[in-house]
Design goal:
- The structure is a single chain.
- The chain is an alpha/beta fold.
- It has 2 domains: 4-242, Peroxisomal Thiolase, Chain A, domain 1 (3-Layer(aba) Sandwich), CATH 3.40.47.10; 254-402, 3-Layer(aba) Sandwich (Peroxisomal Thiolase, Chain A, domain 1).
- Helices cover 33% and strands 19% of the residues.
- The protein contains 13 helices and 14 strands.
- It has helices spanning 19-28, 63-66, 71-87, 111-123, 133-137, 141-150, 165-179, 196-204, 237-242, 268-281, 302-314, 327-330, 337-351, and strands spanning 4-12, 34-35, 48-49, 100-105, 156-159, 184-191, 228-236, 249-258, 291-293, 322-324, 353-354, 377-378, 383-390, 394-402.
- A 10-stranded mixed β-sheet has the order 5-4-6-7-1-8-14-13-9-10, with helices on both faces.
- The two termini are 17 Å apart.
- The model has no long low-confidence stretch (mean pLDDT 97).
């Protein structure tokens, strides 16, 4: 069994078009939530989201490549390029590319392509669709496009587990590298879900906020949708040291569980089980953890349930933990959420800075932990967890240590 480290990260988010820009915005507590600019707001009940604005795909792709790419794949490719460049990994060296995995999660896949095709068929009554429709909208498109970009011929596939997709993808990649099934991996999540169909579907669930995202705050009114991608380079500690790579963090362990209960209502026991399994897998005691990047959706049900689950796992140490939800800034990017939040967890380990829970107003008696309200905080972080809990009762928690 190998020790696994993260040597590169890339991101395209509502907070910035790079991981560095995203982390800087998180540290500053800047929220990217605002009025939706790409859809007719008069037909929306809650016309707010966190959009990736100013993203010009022609800056990154020529016309021949771009015709193959839905926005979800564009985000993934740009994030992957940043991650690979930062890591300095050479996939041709030592033949490592022959056994590098590509695992990318997405909740809805190429939804912009799907939305456009549906509009053409049903609104315009035009039975002829673009011949590349399937190539663009298939959920595995980001993974396939990234593997093609770098000629990586190891295992490559998509993971779809709603809001836990990115963390499940990262967990699969971690297990492969740790066990030696893969020599390295590019893994994370991508989502481009700010479409009319997706927004209206989420509105129908009555879990959306009409003002902003306020996780753990007494005034929280629900979640807000976001979009973006986060991709990470995972490799063994031995290989990273041998090639002189800068190590961002150690990927210590991961825990997964299924609630096997209500299809949408979160389970305290299921969330706690995933966190406990992550600690055990990573060889961490509860007292080793200084920070948790929470799932923190700002819905009435999630936040107190997650709070109780943290207390169940950490006991008295829960009062010494710092917990924050960066969804308050980049909103809920569904299948990419865990990947965006991993940027914050790595930042906490590397820089000793905790991204805040923005938009926080008054404390809720049912949410009684330290949520780092509104302002970033300096703190020495030895180990951190990053939580993702999805509809369907699908839970995935990542455990990270400071770089060895």
């Amino acid at each position: 069994m190998h020790r696994v480290v993260i040597t590169g990260m890339g991101a395209v988010t509502p907070l910035g078009h790079t991981a560095a820009a995203t982390w800087n915005a998180m540290r500053e507590g800047r929220s990217a939530i605002g009025p939706i600019t790409t859809l007719p707001r008069e037909s929306l009940r809650f016309g707010i989201a966190a959009e990736v604005q100013g993203f010009d795909p022609s800056h990154y792709f020529d016309e021949k490549r771009l015709i193959l790419l839905d926005r979800v794949s564009q985000f993934a490719l740009v994030a992957a390029r940043e991650a690979v460049a930062q890591s300095g990994i050479d996939f041709a060296a030592d033949g490592i590319g022959e056994n590098t995995a590509v695992i990318i999660g997405s909740g809805v896949g190429g939804e912009q392509t799907h939305d456009a095709a549906s509009r053409r068929l049903y609104a315009e009554n035009n039975p002829r669709l673009h011949p590349l429709t399937i190539v663009r909208l298939m959920t595995n498109a980001p993974a396939s496009q990234v593997s093609t970009e770098y000629g990586l011929t190891g295992p490559a596939f998509a993971v779809a587990s709603a809001c836990s997709s990115a963390n499940h993808a990262l967990t699969q990649a971690f297990h492969m590298v740790r066990s030696g099934v893969a020599d390295a991996a590019l893994a994370g999540g991508s989502e481009a879900c700010i479409t009319y169909g997706v927004i209206k579907a989420w509105e129908a669930m009555r879990v959306m906020a009409d003002d902003t995202c306020r996780p753990f705050s007494k005034q929280r009114r629900g979640m807000v949708l976001g979009e973006g991608a986060g991709i990470f380079v995972l490799e063994t500690l031995e290989y990273a040291r041998a090639r002189g790579a800068t190590i961002l963090a150690e990927f210590a362990g991961a825990g997964m569980s299924a609630d096997a209960g209500d299809i949408v209502f979160p389970s305290e026991a299921g969330a706690a089980k995933a966190m406990q399994r992550a600690l055990s897998d990573g060889g961490l005691a509860a007292q080793d953890v200084d920070y948790i990047n929470a799932h923190g959706t700002a819905t009435p049900a999630n936040d107190p349930t997650e709070t109780r689950a943290i207390r169940r796992v950490f006991g008295a140490h829960a009062d010494a933990l710092a917990v924050s939800s960066t969804k308050s800034m980049h909103a809920h990017a569904l299948g990419a959420a865990g990947a965006l939040e991993l940027v914050a967890a790595i930042g906490a380990l590397r820089d000793g800075v905790l991204a805040p829970t923005a938009n926080f107003l008054d404390a809720d008696p049912d949410c009684d932990l330290d949520y780092v309200p509104n302002t970033a905080r300096e703190r020495n972080v030895r180990a951190a967890l990053s939580n993702s809990f999805a509809f369907g009762g699908l839970n995935a928690v990542l455990a990270l240590r400071r770089a060895p």
